[in-house]
Predict the structure.
Amino acid sequence: MKISINQRFGFTFLEVIVVVAVLSLGLLSLVQILPLGLKAQNRAEELTVAYLLGEEKMEETKMRGYLALMEDYASTGEGPGEGEGEFENYQGYNWHLNWWDTDVPGLAKVQVRVLFGESGTSESRGNGESRKAGEHIELVTYLASRNSGQILREE
């Protein structure tokens, strides 16, 4: 078999440059997407931990009962009863609990807010109070007195 000088095998330099450029753009896109996936994973983990900690605080409050709620987080006048604290084993996660009496005697509305993220800084509420800024989730439930029937009969 005779090979002519005019016959070419392989690719020209220009074809190689074009292929390398196209592959580089594809790889660059993949490299830019990877951090987005990691950010989404971290965000999902933060939200999951915050939700589970909020559920834990809410269940602890429900287990202790209505009277303990009134004693532990005393209301000042007509405002809500409130308390706050940190989760021992979870640095950067704080809780804030509010409760209000409802129109039904012996029934309280309980709100647990779990603060996380940039919660180390303070943010003014405008009325002289400050609360920790950052992201948060809120859980709300109602808590009845175990002897609410007695409360209803007394009134």
Remarks:
- The mean pLDDT is 82.
- The two ends are 112 Å apart (CA to CA).
- Residues 13-64 form the longest helix (52 residues).
